[in-house]
Amino acid sequence: MKISFDDLHKAFESRVRLGIMSALAVNDSLDFTALKEFLNVTDGNLATHIKKLEKEDFVEVQKSFIDNKPNTRYSMTPEGRKAFNDYLNVMEQIINTQK
Asked: Which range marks the domain in which residue 54 is found?
């Protein structure tokens, strides 16, 4: 079977979305501020990319209040974990075919 870049999910083409999924892959959940600081992006930029991942059902949002302040946490859905793992597997296959 021939593997190509066309086999990669389009949702992960963005550096920011790839970073979000990478961070969530190794953490149960992260809040908005932690993701923003980790990725070094603006509020609007992060919000836009999170929305795209939400639309794909790759990221789940939990809103709550901590000390009367809103807190938004994100976690990877099972669908998101599968899609991200599939993405990583295709990338690994592409890399291995280039050796």
From this structure: 6-97
**Residue 25 domain-assigned?**
yes
- Residue 12 domain-assigned? yes
Number of separate domains in the chain: 1
Asked if residue 54 has pLDDT above 90, the reply is yes
Report helix, strand or coil for 2: coil
pTM above 0.85?
yes
67-95: average pLDDT: 92
Tokens 């979000």 locate to 20
Classify each residue of 65-95 as buried b or exposed e, where b means 16 or more C-beta atoms within 10 Å of its C-beta.
Answer: eeeeeeeebbebbeebeebbeebeebeeeee
**Using an 8 Å Cβ cutoff, are 64 and 73 in contact?**
yes
